Amino acid sequence: MSDAGPHNLKTWYPLAPASAVPAVGTALGAWLAQLHHRTSRTAGTRRTFDNATAKGIYRYAYANLATAFERHGLDVAYARAVDETFGARLATDDVCVCHGDFWSGNVLVADGPGTTTTLSVVDWEMTRRGIGATDVAQFAAEAYLLDRFCGGKGLVEAFLEEYVRAARENGEVGGEAGKEEFVKRLVVHFGVHLAFWPSFVAWCGEEETRELAKFGKGCIEAGWGANWEAVREGPLAPVLSLLV
């Protein structure tokens, strides 16, 4: 594994020149779109990747969202409703194969000669059948945190724009549920990630963590209510092109 690079993307990002980061986001967006597209109609993956354990583990942030909300003085009943409405769907989602833990810590980076950078996606233990929106949202949330706290190098925008471009080119998003449901799930999952994980994996001080939780809740509300104008004003604006 050492030849895959000395850094993961999370540790590489703060050290990388700003000019190198968008290309990484673009490459990962294209790769993820292909993973989701190529496994969306593959019957054999329903048996191989019907990973009930991974589906249960992946619900962790939803199941414990109320804990983060309580810590930051937010509506605990609302957090429980989010879990009951969206967390519960993780058990039955069956659109495509999802990596299952697609974040910056699971992307290894090896800088080659010149501007060449090799990326390796690792840790596939959580791979499952699901809806690709959760992979996109998890990576986008972690990319947003890197951009916000480690230099604003354009990772989240490049990633989302390329995923959307590739997904539209493939001509199918969200399976039978449709593209609006895909975008709704993406926005909600992005919000859940930001409302929950920074409260337990520190990125900043307590006050800014509280602001992240509030921002995450706002994203959940916008996604659940299909308030696309609110989404358009934030970092997930590129995904709205999927609705066109």
From TrEMBL:
- Its domain of life? Eukaryota
* Domain Aminoglycoside phosphotransferase stretches: 18-168
Which is one Pfam family of this protein?
APH
Record Gene3D superfamilies? 3.90.1200.10
Q: Which InterPro entries match?
A: Aminoglycoside_PTrfase, Kinase-like_dom_sf
Name the record gives this protein: Aminoglycoside phosphotransferase domain-containing protein
